[in-house]
Design a protein that fits this description.
Order of helices and strands: EEEEEEEEE
Radius of gyration: 15 Å
Structural class: mainly beta
Helix content: under 10%
Bound molecules: manganese (II) ion
Number of strands: 9
Shape: globular
Strand content: over 45%
Number of domains: 1
């Protein structure tokens, strides 16, 4: 059991983290706890702090729960070699969830408020890994 956090149907607090990853290309790994794993997206640009900043988010392989705590150096020669540090962390609550859209209330230290992840409507499998990540303009109340 992870640190006595509340976990009920109406008020789910799921893990949210963004790891800054200085691999061959600097990027930011957004990870969200979903169905017992960490769903992961790589952001080539810094995460959006304000509404109106749209970021590409590339879906990458799921990671196991627990990886949200990882900081350190992935050794040279291994996949993703380079420094990993936690850039932001906290919890989120799902607001809307479909196969192609996630709307979430993020309670992080840097990112706070309602954010959306929307999948591009591409023709081939590779396109389906592309999502848009942004802070909603309409910060509607979540109860
Ligand atoms: Mn990475």
């Amino acid at each position: 059991m992870v640190s006595g956090r509340a976990k009920t149907d109406n008020n789910q607090q799921l893990i949210y983290v963004i790891q800054k990853h200085e691999a061959s290309h600097l990027h930011y790994d957004l990870r969200l706890e979903l169905d017992g794993i960490l769903k992961s997206w790589a952001l080539p640009k810094p995460p959006p702090l304000r509404a109106g900043e749209k970021r590409l988010a590339i879906e990458v392989e799921d990671h196991p729960l627990g990886y949200e705590k990882f900081e350190g150096i992935i050794p040279a020669g291994q996949y993703g070699a380079g420094r990993v540090e936690i850039w932001d962390k906290g919890y989120y609550q799902p607001v809307v969830r479909t196969d192609d859209k996630l709307e979430i209330l993020i309670s992080g230290e840097k990112l706070k408020g309602i954010y959306s992840l929307i999948r591009f409507q591409g023709k081939n499998q590779e396109d389906k890994k592309l999502w848009l990540f942004f802070k909603n303009k309409d910060q509607k109340k979540v109860c």
